[in-house]
Write a sequence for this structure.
C-alpha cells in the first residue's frame, strides 16, 4: 500500500524550503516529491513495504502512520510545519462536515453573545471546559444559554457583521471542494442564527445547529431540544454519507472541540484544526499551524487547482 505525507505551513509565512523537504524525505523510504504550493505545501509519496510482510503487518496501518508522522516531525525540528500522513488511495473527499466556532470562524458565538450581558468571562470559562471535554456538552450549553435570557434578537446581526472573523482559507476550501463535486455541510453545536449567515458567506451546501427559543424579539434563555452536540454531529456524518452513497474513505470532517470527536473518528479522515490538546491527540490528523487551505493540500490539490473566489 502506498502512503503520502503532506507538509504544510501557514501560507502567510511560507517557510517550507528545499532543506526542510530534503530532511523530511530522508525519514521516508524512497519518497516521490510533488510541490503543491511553493514554500507552503509539499507531498512526499512513499511505500513502506508490503503490509503482509511479517515484519510490518503486526504494526498495522494506524501505527505505521503514527510512527512515520513522528519521524517527520523529528526531522523538521522546531519548524512550524504541519505533517499529515495517510494512505494515498481515496484522499480526494466527496463529503465535508465542518464545525463552525473556532474552526470556520475564529470566535465562539455564545461567548460573543455573553459579552452583551457582561458575562463573557463566566461563559467563556464554561465554553473552554466543555470544548476540552471537562464538562458534558448538552448541560453546559443549556447553562450558558440561560444566562442570555432577555438579550435582544438584533444583537445577533451586530455580532455577525462586526465580531465574527472567517478563518483564512475557508472560502477556498468550500469553493474548491464543491467545484469538484463534494457536498459541504456546516454542523455546529452553536446556533442556526449564526450558521445560516456563516454558511452563506462561505458557500456551504447546508447547515445544522441548535435553535434558540425567541420570545418577543428577545432570547428566552432556552434552546430547542434535542441539542445538536457530539452524537448529533456523528449521526449527521452517517446520514449524509448514506444519502450521497459514499464510502467512509470518501468523507472528511474538521473541528476543534470534544463534541467533534465522534464525528472526526467516524470520518475517512478526521482533522483536528488548531484544536484542544485532547482532541488533537485523538484525531487522525491535526493542523496546528496552517490555515484551512491545509484541508485542500492534504487531499492532493495543488494551489493552481483552487477554485476562484
Amino acid at each position: 500500500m502506498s502512503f503520502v505525507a503532506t507538509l504544510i505551513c501557514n501560507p502567510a509565512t511560507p517557510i517550507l524550503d528545499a532543506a526542510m523537504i530534503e530532511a523530511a524525505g530522508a525519514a521516508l523510504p524512497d519518497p516521490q516529491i510533488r510541490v503543491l504550493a511553493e514554500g507552503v505545501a509539499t507531498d512526499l509519496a512513499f511505500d513502506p513495504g508490503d503490509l503482509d510482510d511479517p515484519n510490518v503487518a503486526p504494526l498495522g496501518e494506524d501505527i505505521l502512520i503514527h510512527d512515520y508522522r513522528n519521524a517527520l516531525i523529528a526531522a523538521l525540528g522546531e519548524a512550524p510545519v504541519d505533517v499529515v500522513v495517510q494512505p494515498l488511495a481515496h484522499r480526494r473527499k466527496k463529503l465535508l462536515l465542518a464545525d463552525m466556532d473556532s474552526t470556520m470562524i475564529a470566535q465562539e458565538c455564545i461567548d460573543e453573545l455573553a459579552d452583551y450581558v457582561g458575562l463573557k468571562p463566566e461563559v467563556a470559562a464554561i465554553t473552554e471546559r466543555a470544548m476540552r471535554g471537562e464538562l458534558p456538552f448538552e448541560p453546559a450549553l443549556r447553562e450558558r444559554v440561560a444566562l442570555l435570557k432577555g438579550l435582544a434578537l438584533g444583537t445577533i446581526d451586530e455580532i455577525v457583521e462586526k465580531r465574527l472573523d472567517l478563518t483564512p482559507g475557508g472560502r477556498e476550501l468550500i469553493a474548491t471542494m464543491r467545484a469538484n463535486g463534494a457536498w459541504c455541510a456546516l454542523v455546529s453545536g452553536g446556533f442556526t442564527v449564526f450558521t445560516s449567515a456563516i454558511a452563506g458567506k462561505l458557500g456551504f451546501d447546508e447547515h445544522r445547529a441548535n435553535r434558540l427559543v425567541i420570545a418577543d424579539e428577545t432570547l428566552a434563555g432556552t434552546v430547542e431540544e434535542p441539542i445538536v452536540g457530539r452524537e448529533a454531529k456523528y449521526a449527521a456524518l452517517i446520514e449524509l454519507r448514506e444519502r450521497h452513497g459514499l464510502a467512509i474513505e470518501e468523507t472528511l470532517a474538521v473541528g476543534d472541540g470534544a463534541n467533534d470527536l465522534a464525528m472526526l473518528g467516524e470520518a475517512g479522515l478526521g482533522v483536528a484544526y488548531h484544536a484542544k490538546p485532547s482532541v488533537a491527540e485523538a484525531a487522525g490528523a491535526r493542523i496546528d499551524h496552517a490555515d484551512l487551505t491545509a484541508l485542500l493540500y492534504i487531499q492532493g490539490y495543488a494551489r493552481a487547482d483552487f477554485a476562484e473566489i
